[in-house]
Hints:
This protein is of the alpha+beta class. Helices cover 31% and strands 32% of the residues. The chain has a seven-stranded antiparallel sheet with strand order 1-6-7-2-5-4-3.
Amino acid sequence: MPKKRERRSIAKNRSARHEYAIEETFEAGLVLKGTEVRSLRERACQITDSFCLIRNGECWLHGVHIPPFSHGTIFNVDSDRKRKLLLHRKQIDYLDGKLRTKGMALVPLELVFDDHNRVKVVIGLGRGKKLYDKRADMAKRDTDREIARALKERNR
Length: 156
């Protein structure tokens, strides 16, 4: 029986869930060059300030920094280039319609190796949070933490 591989995380965008209220998530493939994949296997990637745009019926990922492969040669590519996302036509049309409404954004949440060892990006369709929304979320998180702590003490 072949052993099934699990998803391995390469990079996470922790600030995305703080800045945006994520409504839906999608998993998309990523068009990469060979040296970029080798660099990702070294766990070197930064996606905190990245975003996705839909131009001419194609979805593009901007702002992802994949440093050059450490043992690369002239085949290393630009580390900050825009990369094409691989989505189905219906998904791109759906996302394009949603992005036309005010306040919606498409942000990458995580970069992973899937169970077939391919690089995938998890993107989230979200609405930007206001400052008072962020404060309310932080207050809710604090109260939940206090409740969990009190229950833990009570059950001892």
